[in-house]
Design goal:
Chain lengths: 93, 483
């Protein structure tokens, strides 16, 4: 299959990961190998059915009990007034 | 009497019920074994000595008061570190979750605890279950108890090594593409991947939701059946769990296998299978035939693109599942970030190991608009073909036998550089994962170097009893595996 190799930095950015030049080179080689391995998948003819007859399981649209707020916040690195805090989102004017 | 740490859960249960031993005594024996052996094996990430002894003492008290307790009461076990345990650190062997303490418990853990299990601790694994050797843990490598120069398999390497090293009576792992069966085979233990939906996934940290299942590692078949009996069943917290009736899994043990048809897929022993494995599994087939089973040469081969389809689907799902680790609500958070976007990126770059990062990148690429049709949709088609392969095969036989993996364990740090060979270790295990059907790895011999070899039995959905029936008959005939 003809694969257009992605720009590793752009792909990493989409995945919210920062990579170094060294990592980019390593991942690029891995892509070459892996997509070479995946190549045969292109031989599958269109039209082969995808889903079985079984219905997909869906959860009931109903409220369920969840953990206590304090327990949920206990794992957060920064909390203020019962809320998780994060670095600034908007630039200061 | 054998050392307590060498005994099975069913044997220990008898001793506990007869009050010949106490749970505290038993738990202490395992804690001492962990103390003396785990510095070499590295099966554990967290040992819960104090809480284990506390639970054991409470079970002993209840038993002394005349309470009738379930079979697994007072028996020490351990759990893979991607199964949430309320109040006990759950790391997924990742720096990302190094200090994560879940505010809730996985259903499988809750069910075991309700049945009086004693939790010894949490077990090492490949980071986020991505790997097949337990060399990809952010903490340490686990070693194979049969020869510590070798890997225990993965990703549930800690689960299999703990059973083989007598550091737990039984353990839970997780199996996405073979992560319970492969290490069980490498360590000479029994490893079950149940039918998708038979056991709740609630509280199992997700890698690839459509493939993940909690699995069981034990010394023998009866123990495996006992544990499945305890953890199986519908769970309202997992909407993919099944309400199908749960049979008595131990009731079929000892029924014999006369007349059962065991299918062998076409071309199953390809050139890539290690000669020792080929020979040992062929002997196991002969043995089963001599015990009354009928061997059926299936005219169908395992779909050749199953492995590719598995990796495409697993990595695509993984990239979505692991998007949640951003440092906001839990887990590692990079300190140096000046703004939110920078925090996300630094957190994920510093928190994930290299194997996890590259799998996320591949998954993200596979789900891109232009690649979805070329790869993801095709992989779903192959998945359906795998299901049809099993449907056709089970019309001709009752269950299917293959090796669990093409080779026995390899030396630490010496996994093949060839990606196709590396991924090919899962060639026998991924088909059952894709089809969502149960498969059991059973020890069936050793290599010339003394390393265990496993054979895999696969059955139609919800037919775990059939797997246990055949494996138990085999175990009785040839002895209790290699653990």
């Amino acid at each position: 299959m003809n694969v257009q190799k992605p720009d590793m930095f752009k792909l990493a950015s989409l995945a919210n990961i920062t990579i170094t030049q060294e990592e980019a080179a390593l991942f690029s080689n891995y892509f070459d190998e892996l997509f070479g391995f995946f190549d045969g998948i292109g031989t599958i003819e269109p039209g082969t059915p995808i889903l079985s007859d079984e219905m997909l399981a869906l959860r009931k649209d109903a409220a369920i009990s969840v953990c206590d707020r304090a327990e949920l916040l206990a794992n957060a690195k920064a909390v203020e007034d019962g809320c998780v805090t994060v670095p600034k989102v908007m630039e200061e004017l | 009497m054998k050392p307590l740490t060498s005994m099975t859960a069913s044997a220990l249960s008898t001793l506990l019920q007869a009050k010949e031993i106490s749970s505290v005594e038993l738990t202490n024996a395992f804690l001492q074994q962990i103390e003396s052996r785990d510095c070499e094996i590295g099966a554990y990430l967290t040992v819960c000595a104090a809480s284990a002894l506390q639970t054991a003492a409470s079970i002993d008290k209840r038993r002394a008061n005349g309470e009738k307790l379930p079979a697994l009461s007072g028996i020490p076990m351990a759990i893979k570190d991607n199964i949430c345990t309320r109040g006990i650190r759950t790391t997924c062997a990742s720096k990302m979750l190094s200090d994560y303490v879940p505010p809730y418990s996985a259903t499988v853990y809750s069910r075991l605890m309700q049945n009086g299990a004693v939790l010894l601790g949490k077990l090492n694994m490949d980071e986020f279950a991505m790997g097949g050797s337990t060399e990809n843990s952010a903490y340490h490598t686990t070693r194979n108890p049969h020869n510590t120069a070798y890997v225990p398999g993965g990703s549930s390497g800690g689960s299999a090594a703990a059973v083989a090293a007598r550091e737990a009576v039984y353990t839970l792992g997780s199996d996405t593409g073979g992560s319970v069966r492969l290490p069980a085979a490498f360590c000479g233990a029994v490893g079950l991947r149940p039918t998708y939906g038979r056991v709740s996934r609630y509280g199992l940290v997700a890698y690839a939701c459509s493939l993940d299942q909690v699995g069981i590692v034990t010394k023998d078949i009866r123990d495996n059946a006992l544990v499945l009996q305890t953890i199986a069943g519908y769970d309202a917290n997992d909407f993919t769990s099944s309400s199908a009736e749960i049979p008595d899994y131990t009731a079929v043990l000892g029924r014999g296998i006369s007349g059962l048809r065991i299918g062998v897929p076409k071309d199953v022993f390809s050139q890539t299978v290690q000669s020792d494995v080929k020979q040992v599994v062929a002997c196991a087939l002969e043995k089963l035939e001599s015990m009354g089973a009928e061997l059926v040469e299936l005219p169908y081969a395992i779909p050749e693109l199953a492995l590719q389809a598995y990796y495409i689907l697993a990595l695509a799902e993984a990239s979505c599942n692991l998007a949640r680790y951003d440092g906001v609500r839990y887990g590692y958070r990079a300190e140096a970030a000046e703004d939110l976007q920078c925090m996300y990126r630094l957190t994920r770059s510093e928190g994930f190991g290299s194997e996890v990062k590259r799998r996320i990148l591949v998954g993200a690429y596979l789900l891109g608009e232009s690649q979805k049709t070329a790869y993801y949709d095709k992989a779903l088609q192959v998945r359906r073909q795998v299901g049809l392969f099993f449907d056709k095969s089970f019309a001709m036989c009752d269950l299917i036998l293959t090796p669990t993996s093409p080779t026995a364990a390899y030396r630490i740090g010496e996994q093949s550089e060839d990606l196709a060979v590396k991924l090919g270790m899962d060639c026998y295990t991924v088909p059952a994962s894709l089809a969502g059907i149960p498969a059991l790895s059973v020890p069936c011999g050793i290599t010339a170097e003394g390393l265990p070899i496993g054979m895999q039995l696969t059955a139609p959905a919800f037919c775990e009893s059939l797997l246990y029936r055949v494996a138990y008959a085999y175990e009785r005939e040839v002895g209790n595996g290699t653990v």
